[in-house]
Amino acid sequence: VVIVTDDQGWGDIGYNNPEHVYTPNLDRLAAAGARFTQHYVMPQCTPTRVALMTGRYPSRFGGAAQQASNAPAFPLGTPTMPSLFKRAGYATHLVGKWHLGSTRGHGPNEFGFDSSYGSLAGAVGMYDHRYRAGEFEHTWHRDGVPIEGGENGTHATDLVTREAVRIIEDAGEKPFFLYVAFQSVHTPLDERGRFTDEPTALDPDHPDRWRHEDEIEWFHDPEGLIQRETDPEKRLFLAAVHHLDAAVGEIIDALGRTGQRERTLILFSSDNGPQVNWAGDAYPDDLKLTDFNQPDDLRGAKIDVWEGGIRVPGLANWPGRIEAGESDALVHIVDWLPTLASIVSTEPAGATNLDGADLSAILFDHEADELPDRDLYWTWASTTNRWALRHGDWKIVHYGRPAPESPSNWQLFNLANDPREQTDLAAERPEVLQRMHERYLVRRAGDAP
Q1: CB neighbour list of residue 59: distance below 8 Å, 6 or more residues apart
Q2: Strand, helix or coil at 3?
């Protein structure tokens, strides 16, 4: 089971921020499994999903793969994670958000999923499940066929969870791969509880409270963390996180109830860093929100190649197989495909030049505490204007066009001493900068023109 949340930043989970965020189910998974302290993704939703599904950096495909897009992210016939599992005899299922090509004929069922359900496009209204007005407004579907009426009136998180639980309960003895891609906690933030006919709005009589807030369960946790937050927009976000975490709990419970928990590996990640601010009015019932995520110490946010945009919560949990503990290894979501291929003992047929590394030694060989020496590489935008590369403790960053052609184009940071990326060492360490630039040129040589 691979669970991916949307726009959940480093500080937006309980085990990284226990005084403010209530996520007991995710925290238990982390406490009993491998928790990665340096877990990386791409800066935005579509690119991260490309890396997860293919084991390759999105820049290898170029264009729509490198930025949130409804265009096809990679060609038909591209080897993917579900196609790997199908070769190994697994049933394969996607519930939630696809966002790797929103046109019919380029959806999840064309890339190895036996079943798919949710939104082909990106973020949607939580209760009417529409994307932005236009060609891709109505993509709430089952197996690529739009569902008439869009199942309006039920929160997207609840619909995704119900489908995931149904798949688990119906699995029988056949092994399955289940990819759960929640739309939450991306905007629009909308937590109505049982008041489904009334969009989330501030109470005109109590402008620091949300309408019906006292009666909506997601605004209240047993520890009182959410209600101790005085900023109503942050409180709304924490309510969405609480709702999301409860959904994860339902999936875990379903695995236990059906006797499958002990033989199920659960992987969890967010898709990018926090959104922080949102102008609103892009989706149905879409509120303008300001500084609504939980703060953290990392520089940057969503769509940044600074640490705040690409370092997110990540964990692996498998009872009896993965020991509990933190890992400081450099891990990227591009690693999950080769790792899972190793676990199910199959080769990723047709997949050449994978960028990911097999994490099995970290997960199962408890004496191995790090991966072989390697680079991590980031780009962003369909016409790339952001680059970064990390090797060991060193990281180079470049914003703007054209592409960096010489060492002088980069900023240089030592993340061991400067995790907030405040001190540019490019002028002080030219020999390191030169080596890092040479590494970048090797990575860039594999990119699409």
Answers
A1: 65, 66, 377, 379, 384, 444, 446, 447, 448
A2: strand
User: What dihedral do alpha carbons 205, 210, 214, 220 form, nearest 10°?
Assistant: -150
* Tens digits of pLDDT across the chain (449 residues): 999 999 999 999 999 999 999 999 999 999 999 999 999 999 999 999 999 999 999 999 999 999 999 999 999 999 999 999 999 999 999 999 999 999 989 999 999 999 999 999 999 999 999 999 999 999 999 999 999 999 999 999 999 999 999 999 999 889 999 999 999 999 999 999 999 999 999 999 999 999 999 999 999 999 999 999 999 999 999 999 999 999 999 999 999 999 999 999 999 999 999 999 999 999 999 999 999 999 999 999 999 999 999 999 999 999 999 999 999 999 999 999 999 999 998 776 556 689 999 999 999 986 555 677 899 999 999 999 999 999 999 999 999 999 999 999 999 999 999 999 999 999 999 999 999 999 999 999 999 98
Q: Residue 58 has what DSSP assignment? A: G
Dihedral over alpha carbons 157, 159, 164, 170 (to 10 degrees):
160
For residue 65, which of 384, 418, 430 has the smallest C-alpha distance? 384
d(CA 16, CA 151): 35
Contact 442, 416 (CB under 8 A): no
* Burial label, 287 (beta-carbon count in 10 A; 0-12, 13-18, 19+): buried
What is the DSSP secondary-structure string of 389-410?
Answer: EEETTEEEEEESSS---SGGG-
CB atoms within 10 A of CB 113: 26
| Cβ-proximal residues to 207 (8 Å cutoff; 6+ apart), any chain | none
Q: Who contacts 284 (Cβ-Cβ below 8 Å, separation ≥6)?
A: 125, 127, 128, 130, 188
H or E element, residue 28: helix 24-32
Cα separation, 55 vs 216, in Å, equals 40
Residue 59 CA to its chain's centroid (Å): 18
Strands 2-5 and 266-270: parallel
Amino acid at 380: W
Name, in order, each residue with C-beta under 8 angstroms of 153's C-beta and a sequence gap of 6 or more.
127, 128, 196
Measured distance CA(424)–CA(13) in Å, rounded? 30
User: What does the block give as tokens for 408?
Assistant: 């002088």
Q: How far is CA 112 from the centre of its chain?
A: 20
**Secondary structure (3-state) at 96:** strand
Q: What is the CA radius of gyration of the chain?
A: 21
The encoded tokens of residue 203 equal 């109470």
